[in-house]
Amino acid sequence: MKNSIRVQRAIKNITQAELAELVNVSRQTINTMESGKYIPSTVLALKIAAIFGVSVEAVFELEEGD
Amino acid sequence: MKNQFLLPAKFRLIGWVTFLLSFALGILTESYGYDIPGFQIYYPKEGSFAGYNLTNELAFLGTIVGLLMISFARHINEDELISKIRLESWKWAVLINYAILLILNFTSYGLGFVFIVTYNVLTLLLVYIIRFYYSLYLLNKNLKNSED
Q: Can you give the three-state secondary structure of B74-129, one letter per residue?
């Protein structure tokens, strides 16, 4: 699964730490997600999309092999 | 992330203290024959009473409970990533534990086997703790390496 968290963060101008605090996870979790090593739960994906004010599909998308 | 079956974070420290003290007591009692004076149970035997010292039982209890507290203490940043690392670490621990047991099965026998299996009880928790904290260490290292 691909995600555009880094891009969305840049648009919103918030750091990993700020996003982590907003969705109530650790900074490590955001960092690991951005590098594609961790697939978040549905709840976390929905929370992140809500923070950015976009739909989940705008942040997360399937890639080949999923 | 509710209902995770974990202890409060401070149990990590309490667990380490309990484990280290009990482990030291275990070495003292197993290798040097130290018994806590008066820490006995008495039971009737052949018209009189016989005593049995409970020092090694206490050491074993403390060692296991200490390791359990370290294993089940909530991480300060407990979230779904940490939960995933916990699960992975348990898988590793169970596999390695039984791998050791199977190797012992073919390399030792009799009382020696029973003696080593006593310590095999601890490997599950030890491997879990080592794998879990090593993963957290790698996680923090990656975080430091990547710019924000």
A: CCCCCCHHHHHHHHHHHHHHHHHHHHHHHHHHHHCCHHHHHHHHHHHHHHHHHHHH
